[in-house]
Design goal:
Layout lengths: L20 E9 L6 E6 L3 E5 L6 H8 L6 E6 L2 E2 L5 H7 E4 L21 H6 L16 H14 L4 E5 L7 H16 L3 E5 L3 H7 L2 E6 L2 E4 L12
Parallel strand pairs: 3-8, 3-9, 6-7, 7-8
Antiparallel strand pairs: 1-2, 1-4, 4-5, 9-10
């Protein structure tokens, strides 16, 4: 663990709120990338693309302190090093491309099933989904349920690794709508996506991870748009 030490028409992402830095990634480094520094504001989404093997997923895992890394990450003024690992990962939550399912029924993976009802509805999932057997789930259902499971825990930051890769356009719209709702509540999001159009829809800022560095994603830019 790291503590050892189809194109869619969608509303544009909201403007970044004028607020202080919420998540401060300071010189984060692994053998694959870095050192990388990045600052995320509350309610902001940063979108990151890159080639396979560039280290995008490892970057998110390092932020969550799930893989060995050097550097520090500070959430709302509190260093990761000052928190217990499980407390950090509850506040800065990784939603991997393939989420784990360790029990037979979906509901056994939810801490508070009642709190998930609205999330399931927003993701076009039946209220009976919590009684479903995990083995009967499609890939898309697993992904939407994993999103609901994560959001039900009310994290402050979401690290989302290709959250819509297995979804059709309609389901993707639902997920993006939930992401915007979370941003409106002040949740910060770092989004890994292969789709520059999704990056443009969701990301206030957009980057490529290449050669171990974060660079401005020119392909994800709208004409005449600047990324600071």
């Amino acid at each position: 663990m790291g503590r050892n030490r189809t194109r869619m028409s969608q509303p544009r992402a909201p403007k970044q709120p004028a607020s202080s830095v919420f998540l401060d990634i300071r010189a984060l480094e692994t053998p694959i990338f870095g050192p990388l520094s990045l600052q995320l504001s509350a309610g902001e989404c940063i979108a990151i693309r890159g080639k396979s093997g560039a280290g995008k997923s490892i970057f998110l895992r390092a932020i969550a302190d799930l893989d060995p890394n050097d550097g520090d990450v500070v959430l709302d003024g509190e260093s990761r090093a000052a928190m217990a690992a499980n407390q950090w990962r509850r506040k800065v939550m990784l939603l991997p491309a393939e989420s784990g399912w360790w029990a037979d029924r979906v509901g056994e993976h939810f801490e508070n099933p009642d709190a998930a009802a609205d999330l399931l509805d927003a993701l076009s999932l039946s209220g009976e989904a919590l009684s479903w057997q995990v083995r009967r789930l499609s890939t898309g259902e697993r992904q939407r349920l994993a999103i609901a499971r994560a959001l039900a825990l009310q994290p402050k930051v979401l690290l989302m690794d290709e959250p819509t890769a297995a979804l059709d356009p309609q389901a993707t719209e639902k997920v993006e709508a939930i992401m915007r709702a979370q941003m409106a509540k002040g949740v910060g999001i770092i989004l890994i996506t292969h789709d520059p159009q999704q990056g443009r829809r969701m990301g206030v800022r957009r980057f490529l991870l290449e050669d171990g560095k974060l660079v401005i994603d020119e392909a994800g830019q709208a004409a005449g748009e600047n990324t600071r």
